[in-house]
Design a protein that fits this description.
The complex is a heterodimer of chains A (404) and B (500). With 404 residues, chain A is of the alpha+beta class. Chain A contains 14 helices and 19 strands. Chain B contains 17 helices and 22 strands. Classes of the chains: A alpha+beta (404), B alpha+beta (500).
Chain lengths: 404, 500
């Protein structure tokens, strides 16, 4: 029955057939088709699951239909001189990267995972190690188009690098897991590809490397990425500190000397270009090593506490995939854990003022504890009202809190 | 005065008699902000001394259903901090404490009335500073910066206010306190910090602000380049951006602005015969890196047609170059009795064309437009000095300003890059947002402030916001849909643009 109605809305080319759970999958080709599907879903009360490439978030949320952005693909506007691009949400990150590199430009963010769509990366706000030098994904976004759960098409932000007109709905949409609607395209700030790109690495004990990483920052250097990673992430038997320097010859050379002094007696090994690319690819791809990936925010000086707490509740063998962005104060973990353990972890971390975001997990985990868990005092009501503003029938199957 | 006397009495007993103003003369102090074209006296002014008193004030106002407007130093340039006689103005100038400086984690916690430049001064001994630097930084408050998402010259490299706010404690309009974000900046749920910053005081009052601190650069060079035409200077900016170099600041002043600065006490030694000057600042943590980047910048400026490029490396010379730029608005204020300071953003590659067209608009309206702006961001500030007492000239200024805004929007730009919408640009919002988006913004506002009492009448042009009506009596029917034809009623286009 739903299939027939969807066919009327998007035609044969927009229907992909049933997914593994037997629900119809619709792949709109335009923002208007996307909006139309959501409008009708809203009026009919159909629950909608939003999907990108299906390589990050499991496509397992119970719903009446799945809406995939895979046909909303392509770079629709690229201005290398202005360093701004408009990209449709279903574009894969790899394709975007290749298109931009042809023009000597890039988006300075390196999201974990592989084969992902731009929409997935934006909706989950999964910034990678480059957040150390260039800020998070939200800092690279100038605007976006959103088809709300009500079926409205909302265009916010713009293609200019500064903009304070109206409320910043772009920021709200980034990292909201699709709770407010389907992101159909984004305007991205680009940068010129740097002349020098150097990666250095050293192995050691976890806390020793955390201290070394802090020394690097205290020495006044400006690494683009500075991560302390677990043995599973590097495929070796010890923890490692990995750092990346980007910029001009002079800037990188100066930092290189300062860093060598700062970390002594630890000696950093500089990797050649292909080994460096391979290392970062491995580190980021393995963010899906376990069925759940979470992000924990802590002050840089509290990272040892954060890691000990994580180990105590969900990584007792200390053998899971972990990357720590030392300057940003972010720990990313991937492994297996029951919802009750994750809930316990989250409760303890909340007391330490360390928020935990479930970045990806099977439905039984997401639906039990939510992407964000319990909100702080007086926030829950605001989020509920906001969700209602975008999706008044609650058709979007996104469990943000543990009360969803 | 239309504020209920019982509300005034309650405010007096809460904060003390001396911190509540309700007489005409005292209220006049708060009747303007940095925008000279608007004037409005609040019904009363209350000046709480701490966060608990802000909460108390908002509870009193909630009980009496009185609207309120939060105000910092009153340096805003969009009329955002003005209140009408049915509203209470909540002045935050007593909340001036820097509550915590945490150098190890490069963060500070401040009250909203802390002055921008004073935070940088207080953190200098740790080798840190607060990077966003609006021109008014010696007087403007961080609470106001948060409300407006303030920018500044060095935001080209370091980002605007929104990039530097980690956590906010806010008093909601009903007097409840809520904490948005987390101490290290990681969102705690959807990004409410990002949404709150730049919401122009319409979601509540920030009572405690956690900001990111940035290491002070160890090497700095400031360059002054002058050009024989505005177009050439604009092209130099485009060349710089396209090259991938991100200077710490890239500012432009045209000849009229330079002349005004050089005729004032803020004289900086700019060449008055140049059609435009660029100030470019390069900074970094090492001398070697900054020297190399400076050479590249110099080379781009020269190959783009700069007549001369001079470098300042000692702090005194640099301060002099910057003084002219930072005080340019003050200098231009001497040209006539009033100064309209505009704010718009355009794609950076369009700067040469847009600047020429702005000049043409000035001539067509018989007005003199001076430009001083953040060229690297494409953030224009076309300023018009005029006699505001003459209604004919006032009308011409208004029409010229509107024409400039239309020009920028048609070029793919926006109506404000850092001054906010406030009262001044509310009527321009339909130029860039359709009724559905404006309607959604209104619903978002109501999520924080169901009664719309916080800074009423600002930002959103109520008549342009499409209201969404849902028939909740029938869960399967929605009145915004033409279900029979499965077509949404919204047209996805902007009628305001079609009216031009």
């Amino acid at each position: 029955m739903i299939d027939k109605q969807l066919r009327v809305l998007v035609g044969d080319r927009g229907l992909l057939g049933a997914d593994a759970t037997g629900i119809p999958r619709v792949a709109p080709h335009t923002d208007e088709e996307c909006s139309l599907v959501l409008s009708v879903a809203s009026s009919e009360g159909w629950r909608v699951r939003i999907e990108g490439s299906g390589t990050w978030m499991p496509t397992d949320a119970p719903a009446d239909l799945a809406l995939t952005t895979r046909h909303l693909a392509g770079v629709t506007d690229l201005n290398p001189a202005d360093l701004v691009a408009t990209v449709r949400a279903g574009t894969t990150w790899a394709n975007l990267r290749a298109t931009l590199l042809d023009q000597g430009a890039w988006v300075v963010t390196d999201p974990p995972g592989s084969g992902r769509s731009v929409g997935s990366i934006v909706a989950t706000a999964t910034s990678g190690p480059l957040r150390t030098g260039f800020g998070t994904l939200r800092d690279q976004l100038l605007g976006l188009t959103l088809a709300t759960g009500n079926g409205e098409i909302i265009r916010v932000g713009g293609k200019v690098v500064k903009n304070v007109a109206g409320y910043d709905i772009t920021k709200l949409a980034v990292g909201s897991f699709g709770a407010f609607g389907v992101i159909t395209s984004v305007n991205l700030r680009l940068r010129a590809v740097p002349r020098v790109d150097t990666t250095m690495l050293a192995y050691g004990e976890r806390d020793e490397l955390l201290r070394a990483a802090r020394s690097i920052l205290e020495a006044g250097t400006t690494p683009a990425a500075l991560e302390v990673v677990s043995p599973l992430a590097t495929g070796q038997s010890r923890w490692a500190v990995v750092l990346r320097l980007l910029g001009s010859d002079a800037a990188v050379n100066a930092d290189r000397l300062t860093i060598a002094d700062a970390v002594a007696p630890i000696t950093l090994k500089e990797l050649d270009t292909s080994a460096a690319a391979q290392l970062w690819r491995t580190l980021l791809t393995q963010a899906t090593a376990g069925e759940t990936t979470l992000r924990l925010g802590a002050l840089p000086t509290a990272l040892e506490t954060a890691l000990d707490t994580l180990a105590h509740y969900v990584d007792e063998e200390c053998d899971d995939w972990i990357m720590v962005s030392v300057a940003a104060g972010v720990v990313r973990w991937s492994g297996e854990a029951q919802p009750n353990r994750l809930r316990l972890l989250r409760g303890v971390c909340a007391q330490l003022e360390m928020p935990i975001t479930i970045e990806r997990a099977p439905w039984h985990v997401r639906s039990t504890i939510g992407h964000f868990g319990a909100y702080r005092e007086n926030i829950g009501g605001i989020i509920t009202s906001l969700r209602r503003s975008f999706d008044d029938r609650g058709i979007l199957a996104v469990p943000l809190s543990d009360e969803s | 005065m239309t504020i209920p006397p019982a509300a005034i009495d309650a405010l007096r007993s809460l904060v003390g008699d001396q911190w509540v103003r309700s007489s005409g003369a005292a209220l006049e102090t708060y009747a303007s902000d940095g925008l000279p074209t608007h004037h409005s006296c609040p019904g009363a002014v209350v000046i709480p001394g701490n966060a608990a008193q802000i909460v108390g004030v908002l509870r009193v106002l909630e009980q009496h259903a009185v609207p309120f407007v939060a105000r910092g130093a009153g340096t805003g340039l969009s009329g955002g901090a003005l209140a009408t006689e049915d509203a209470v103005l909540v002045a935050l100038t007593r909340l001036t404490h820097i509550l915590e400086v945490d150098p190890a984690n490069r963060r500070a916690v401040v009250e909203p009335g802390v002055i921008n430049a004073q935070l940088s001064a207080a953190t200098e001994r740790f080798g840190l500073h607060y990077a966003p630097d609006p021109s008014s930084q010696s007087v403007c408050t961080l609470g106001g910066n948060v409300a407006e998402n303030a920018g500044g010259p060095h935001c080209l490299k370091y980002g605007v206010t929104g990039n530097h706010i980690l956590q906010l404690e806010v008093a909601l309009p009903n007097g409840e306190l809520a904490t948005l974000g987390s101490p290290g900046g990681e969102p705690w749920g959807p990004d409410l910090v990002g949404l709150f910053v730049g919401s122009e005081g319409m979601f509540g009052i920030a009572t405690k602000i956690t900001v990111k601190l940035t290491p002070l650069p160890r090497a700095v060079r400031t360059l002054l380049a002058d050009f024989s035409s505005l177009r050439t200077a604009g092209e130099a900016v485009t060349a710089m951006i396209s090259s991938g170099i991100v200077p710490a600041a890239l500012e432009m002043m045209d000849q009229k602005c330079v002349t005004a600065v050089e005729a004032s006490i803020y004289r900086a030694g700019y060449p008055t015969d140049a059609s435009a000057v660029l100030i470019v600042e390069v900074d970094g943590m090492t001398e070697a890196a900054v020297a190399e980047e400076t050479r590249q910048v110099e080379s781009i400026l020269q190959s783009s047609g700069a007549r001369t490029v001079t470098k300042a490396s000692d702090p005194k010379q640099r301060a002099r170059l910057w003084q002219g730029r930072k005080k340019a608005f003050g200098a231009m204020g001497r040209i006539d009795s009033d100064l309209s300071v505009q704010d718009a953003v355009v794609p950076r590659t369009l700067l040469p064309d847009i600047l020429e067209q702005i000049s043409r608009i000035g001539i067509e309206h018989g007005l003199s437009v001076c430009n001083v702006f953040h060229a690297g961001d494409g953030n224009l500030h076309p300023n018009i000095a005029f006699n505001g007492k003459d209604p004919v000239i006032r009308g011409r200024v208004e029409r010229a300003s509107n024409a400039i805004m239309h020009l920028c929007v048609e070029g793919g730009g926006t109506i404000t890059g850092e001054h906010g919408v406030g009262l001044d640009k509310r009527h321009l919002m339909p130029l860039i947002f359709d009724p559905d988006t404006l309607g959604l913004m209104r619903r978002i506002r109501r999520a924080f402030d169901p009664d719309e009492r916080a800074n009423p009448g600002k930002v959103l042009p109520a008549h342009s916001c499409r209201e969404r009506r849902t028939d909740h009596s029938n869960p399967r029917r929605d009145s915004t849909m033409d279900l029979e034809h499965h077509r949404p009623r919204h047209p996805h286009r902007n009628p305001a643009l079609n009216d031009d």
